[in-house]
Amino acid sequence: MTTETKQTLTTQQVADRFNALAQKEMWFEIQDELFADNVRSVEPADSPYFKDAQGKSAVRKKGEDWVARVQEVHKLSTTTPIVGGNHFAVGREVDITVEGHGKVVINQIMLYEVKDGRIVLEQFTY
């Protein structure tokens, strides 16, 4: 009889892995590796760019649709995560040109909730 133990990542471990990938702008890899199947993505109520999404595939599509509309990247940066309990937050600056919106500069706080070693919520404030 073999007992296989799979260790659940802590919030700090998820945040550290998130940071390693975010610094390389590997956002779809973050989704694939760290997001729970039932992840929720929450935007500000008055966002002119996005609507909320529920579920890993819907969140993925939201990101793919946005990336497809980016015409030029001027600056992208993400701060090191700050961890508190089962949450972590990063600051993100995006300066891009987007089809239908022109030049867009977003300075935001991105808040993530971790449960059972996976991100179950991403919430954007800008």
TrEMBL record:
Coiled coil: none annotated. It comes from the Bacteria. Residues 9-126 form the SnoaL-like domain. InterPro entries: NTF2-like_dom_sf, SnoaL_5. This is Nuclear transport factor 2 family protein. It comes from Chryseolinea lacunae.
